[in-house]
Write a structure and sequence with these properties.
Shape: globular
Radius of gyration: 18 Å
Number of strands: 7
Strand order of the largest sheet: 1-4-7
Helix content: 25-40%
Distance between the termini: 24 Å
Strand content: 5-15%
Structural class: alpha+beta
Largest sheet: 3 strands, antiparallel
Order of helices and strands: HEEEEHHHHEHHEEH
Length: 259
Amino acid sequence: MKLAAAVFLAAMCSLAHAQDGGMALVKGGSYVPLYGDKAKAVQVRDFFLDVTPVTHEQYLAFVKTHPKWQRSRVSRLFADEHYLQDWTDDHTPENGSFNTPVNYVSWFAAKAYCESQGKRLPTVDEWEYAAMADEHRRDARKDSAFNQQVIKGYETPRSHLKPVGNSPANYWGIKDLHGLVWEWNLDFNSVILTSDSRNQDETANTTFWCGGAAINANDLMNYAAFMRYALRSSLKARYALKSLGFRCAKDASKSDLNP
């Protein structure tokens, strides 16, 4: 009996940390978002998520093969004037930043990158579901120490200084969901909090409008989530911010779950 239990636990751990080309498998389940008129559980299906954010080096390879997304050629319909503003030219990211998260990238550009890889941007629910895990638990949101650590990382974003992959992997084997850059979601503008956060200067880099966010929160203790939702409600798809990057996701098939 003990041997059977050990085999089962080993199989579950292997599944929880399964990877596919730099992606980690996130087993689906339900969770209760912090925002909305009613605190209803949301069902999240199994999906893959990049282990780390997309780096400058990876994005450079993308713009070389997709010239319309180069800094000098991108349409202002799809990226504002801050797009890749810390690059020296179309093919030169900021010195020494190749393994750091790419930033100053619009939603349109992030979406195009993921699609070029046969992937997509993660939804808000997918991202939040994966990001509520710590190293040992699928949901660590009730842990004040966990939330304090997340908020500490948000206070002084250093996306241009820190390389990806140095943080401990969470329960799913995913790194850097907190502390390097904020990240684009496929449906980032699906949650509108209040009108006071939607008329801000698009050049703002790290200012967050949390006053209205707290009014619509179901859990007033999770201020870290307030910050994320407030930022999302302030964005437009063409914005490119110093503190904003992205990673990609993709659906998990039955064969992924039953190798």
